Amino acid sequence: MKKLLLKIYDEFYETYGPQHWWPGDSPWEIAVGAVLTQNTNWKNVEKAIAGLVDEALLSPEAIMSVPLEKLATSIKPSGYFRLKSQRLKNLAQWWWSNHKDIFDGKLTMDEARESLLGVNGVGPETADCILLYSFNMTTFVIDTYTKKFFSTEPRFLKKVNKNLEKMKYEDWRGIFMNNLPHDFNLFNEYHALIVINGKKLANC
DNA sequence: AACCAGGAGACAT
DNA sequence: ATGTCTCATGGT
């Protein structure tokens, strides 16, 4: 399994090249994008982020202080705007009180992960995206593309000895965490390449 | 014109 | 613990 996961990574890298993720100009913008892209096309997220920029709302402080209704209106294109406006406020509050300690190395990855998962609106995938792409911590992100690709990959199916139906998020993550060297750049590029590959397959 | 897109939480069982 | 509903816009 260990060699296979690296081999599949090499194949993706060979095909698509480095992706240099996540799209976004700052750790905070990346975190915002991680929430806004929940079950949502990235194109819509770009429009929503542009909306935040237009309204001068792309900062934790601005998001914390702006009325919920106005925040919701500015991110409308991303969908679920009522849910996500509240989630951004929750995340901004968390960011305000925690991001510095994490950047200063005062929390382990597991501690930071637990802390993030305590935020209403941040589930396991969003948490891992923020840990990996905002804080440069070595955690593996599992998303729908990952599950779709690997659950139809013959070489993977041959190696994995679990019931795919019953595998939940932490099980999927465990497979990659336990069978890959904990290398930040590898985890960063691997997830990005899986998504790029998934989008290509959907558009062919 | 139905269907989907880089999920998560509330709620019932 | 596990299954089902809901949330919502914009592009095919």
Q: Would you tell me the structural class of the helices and strands?
A: mainly alpha
H and E string: HHHHHHHHHHHH
Q: Biggest β-sheet: count, sense, barrel? A: none
* Rg: 17 Å
| Overall average residue pLDDT | 97
Strand content: under 5%
Give the count of helical stretches: 12
Low-confidence stretches: none
CA-CA gap between termini: 29 Å
Shape: globular
Q: Estimate the helix proportion, in percent.
A: 55-70%
Number of strands: 0
Structure commentary:
The chain has 204 residues and is mainly alpha-helical. The protein has helices spanning 2-16, 27-36, 42-54, 60-65, 68-74, 81-103, 109-117, 124-134, 144-150, 154-159, 169-179, 184-202. The longest helix is centred in the middle third of the chain and has 23 residues, at 81-103. The radius of gyration is 17 Å and the shape is globular.
Provide keyphrases for this structure.
204 residues, mainly alpha, 12 helices, 67% helix, globular, DNA-binding
How would you summarize what this structure contains?
Helices cover 67% and strands 0% of the residues.
Protein topology:
Elements: H1 2-16, H2 27-36, H3 42-54, H4 60-65, H5 68-74, H6 81-103, H7 109-117, H8 124-134, H9 144-150, H10 154-159, H11 169-179, H12 184-202
Helix pairs in contact: 1-12, 2-3, 2-6, 2-8, 5-6, 7-8, 9-12
This protein binds a DNA duplex (13 and 12 nucleotides) through helix 2, helix 3, helix 6, helix 8 and helix 9.
